[in-house]
Prior knowledge:
CATH topology: Cathepsin D, subunit A, domain 1
Number of domains: 1
Distance between the termini: 13 Å
CATH superfamily: Acid Proteases
Mean pLDDT: 90
Order of helices and strands: EEEEEHEEEHEHEE
Structural class: alpha+beta
Shape: globular
Amino acid sequence: MRKRNYTVIPIKLNxxxxxxxxxxxxxxxxxFLVDTGASNTVIDIGFAxxxxxxxxxxxxxxxxxxxxxxxxxxxxxxxxxINDFKISSFDLYATDFQHINExxxxxGITEPCNGVIGAxxxxxxxxxxxxxxxxxxxxx
Length: 140
């Protein structure tokens, strides 16, 4: 994949089989799930506030499976990195992940989910996932 100009990003499988990657948002480290069903990359608004990332509320409501009535926030971040893969001037969205983290806790995940990598990144950067080698590949 390196010969085809892809960046290799290590991923971890958590105890329930979700893919996890390390991200950095304007120098703040976080753990995100790779969510092929999410349309956008989204951070937990509580985690964002705890780390002094300021988001603006937007008019639209959003959500995932089971809800579409959640308040959504937006911020353009200077640098969004997935391991060593750097995206400049990235539009990041935020919402409350309390229900997600409660659901994960019931399944044995003790560390909260800080966010999800969605299709906005996966499609644009031609994502490939190698489950056997536990690698995500992205291409500029």
